[in-house]
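Protein modeling request. Please complete all fields; requests missing the sequence field cannot be processed.
Requester role: graduate student
Desired output: 3D structure, token encoding
Chains: 1
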Amino acid sequence: MTAVQASAPGKLMLIGEYAVLHGAPAVVMAVDRRARISVSPAAGAAGCLTAPQLGIRDQRITIERGQLDFAPPGRVSSMGMTARFLSGLLEFMGLSDRDAAGIDLCMDSAELFEVGPNGKTIKLGLGSSAAICAALGTALARYFGHESDQAGAGPVAASPVVANLRLREWLPLYRQALQAGASGADLAASLHGGVGKYVSALPPANEPAIEPVFLSPKLQWLAVWTGQAAQTTDFVSAFERWRGQDPGPAGRRIEVLSRIAVQAAGSLDDADGFVEVARDFREQLAGLGAAMGLEIMTVAHRRLAALADSLGLVYKSCGAGGGDLGIVLGTRPERIEAFRQQLSPELGLPLNLELDAAGAQADTVPGRIHEQNIKTS
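Delivered output (377 residues):
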């Protein structure tokens, strides 16, 4: 009897927000907080799901009217987009929901969340949904023998070629599961690892692709959690509505953001230049939010930006904005440390993140994997 354990990293969007939805490159970095998945043959007559962050433990996997579900009859499933992604992935692999009913799944995304002051689990904005889907897809591909790269024994991360193949195959399923538009940069980072330049529709095939790039060793950075959760899909949907209602101003905003994103992607070997480009991009994001009538740069983000400016650093929000994460950039480590020392629970929480060079990876192991040892992957 064999089982599979897999993991995939979260991400930080360094630059390219909103512009990446319209063909501009984004620079995205995988970080060392990972979602972890185990797949084992079902111990009982039917498979079970354990997902601690959702309060699910040993919930039986059921099939109602041909649809996979994880909730007792009469209750609404708390799995949402993950259940939709799983069903879509099984269909893509030529499997059925009944194949999923023959396995036990354990999903652990604790590293991508924090416990707030009120005891509630709050997402950090590190792309937890994408990391879970990347790890889940990688685990199932190995378990059901759908490996494109014929991976051998041991924890094996996908090659860049395989990561891009899976990105092209799984991104439509991910978007359908989200029930919203998504650039795919977060999924790309989770599959690929490291730092990548991502384009959502690369000519001539107009397919998504990520290629490895490298930051200047002089570049210093620190991620900061604002303490305010935000929903990326809400901001992206609001942007698309505004673009439809007022295409002229929206187009001009995107044109400027795209130009800066291209400049940023071409200046990664110049730490000082990249920091200044990030400053320009931040100001344009703030202007975009004002034009949309939404706060991309919230009060929390603006306070952190003011602190960074006072220390000769640059701070910008990461992702769609409205809360979640930001990043402070500079070339002087002592200034980054001074920024860290002046943070407080009211201002922002520094996150001890590092670059994770490995993308999604899987390992086949003997026996069954239990919840308590899932973190060995």
